Amino acid sequence: MSGPVIGFAGMTHLGLLSAAAAADRGFQVVAYDAAPTVAAALERGELAIVEPDLPELIARNREQIVFTAQPSELSRCDVVYVAIDVPTDEHGRSNLEQIRAMVDHVARAQSGGSTLVILSQVPPGFTRALTVPPERLYYQVETLVFGRAVERATRPERFIIGCADPSRPLPATWVGYLAAFSCPILPMRYESAELAKISINVCLAASLSVANQLAELSESIGADWAEIVPALRLDRRIGAHAYLNPGLGIAGGNLERDLQTTLSLAQSRHIGTGLVQAFLDLSARRKNWTFTVLAEALLSGNASAKIAILGLAYKENTHSTKNSPALALLEHLRGCAVSVHDPVVSASVVPWAVGAADPMAAVAGADALVIATPWPHYGALKPAALKRAMAGRLILDPYRVLDGHACAAAGFTYYALGMAPLTAST
């Protein structure tokens, strides 16, 4: 395909995925990072992030991408996306200094007629406050989902576009690029697009909070949330793709960040925040689920028990540990005998725990097993093998990676989110 040259500034998770997706559509791509070491590593094919299918996507389109640390390369781009990841603090608040600096850096490097698009997530009001001429400046809602980023980048559901004036046509060269993805394009004012991304995540947080609240109730009354979910999905008002899987609170960084942004915006305008605060309160309580079960079922009677934790990433198919439930649990377990394993996250993130080379080495001699991250290959663990390796008979498997009934039949007490514990007699 011939067409506009597309630039991406910032080779973090968002920028690299977006650049690879653009190249996959046949466009020439300039993938810029201000750090020469980052650009050089990418040029050698060394990726600092873990994402399924990303190495293959880049290798397949390698001739379409120029990795560079030279800002002058951006001057030949028709469109440049600012796509750095926006860091958040421990309270989910965004630090916008880096993206402001990158916008200024890119605007100086661009040619006069090219388009600048903010792809990084920013709060409402950020884009309009920038000094870039509004006829060149746009905001696009990013669709990054860790672990599914290639799918989301190459086959987007829609493009949400923030404009200074949505009644004016978008730049023709940029429209040619967007149209190559064959999905709806939704222009709106800057503030609407910025709030649209937050709105999506607040709705996801609402669904997750409903699932967590009702899963907690299921555990206490002997119901099974997994049996209820199919009935909900068949209700058109809820839908087949509804976010109904319970979890250990709100992990990652995006949902919590957007809840905090919503709180701040509402509080500054004297708008009630009870609903969003309830989501955060429920999340905090559910994050303690694994420790609460361990304390009641094991540690209260055996403070020196050995515990094996499988998984350190905040979810499967990513190396990110931002708000990881596993790390939150490990904070409670300081001073206990703990072994850990994760296929991509180094055990060095928990220097006081014993790192294991494989899952079975981690569970050897353990009194309890916690599968804290639902990596698919943990599902291959056999209850009979676990029984031979472990000293105790307690399994906490919040995401139901294992067959709970098979674990119970092997003599384990098996706990999962949304259901009462299983034993050999249940």
Structural overview:
There is one protein chain. The protein is built from 15 helices and 14 strands. The protein has three domains: 6-183, NAD(P)-binding Rossmann-like Domain (Rossmann fold, 3-Layer(aba) Sandwich), CATH 3.40.50.720; 198-286, N-(1-d-carboxylethyl)-l-norvaline Dehydrogenase, domain 2 (Orthogonal Bundle); 289-415, 3-Layer(aba) Sandwich (Rossmann fold). Helix 1 packs across helix 3 (54-60), helix 7 (190-221) packs across helix 9 and helix 7 (190-221) crosses helix 10 (274-286). The longest helix is centred in the middle third of the chain and has 32 residues, at 190-221. It is globular. It has 426 residues and is α/β, with parallel strands linked by helices. Strands 3-2-1-4-5-6-7-8 form an eight-stranded mixed beta sheet, with helices on both faces. A six-stranded parallel beta sheet has the order 11-10-9-12-13-14. The protein has helices at residues 13-24, 36-43, 54-60, 97-109, 149-154, 172-179, 190-221, 225-233, 254-268, 274-286, 289-299, 325-332, 359-363, 383-389, 404-409, and strands spanning 6-9, 29-32, 65-68, 79-82, 115-118, 137-140, 159-163, 185-189, 306-310, 337-341, 354-355, 368-371, 394-396, 413-415. Helix content is 38%, strand content 13%.
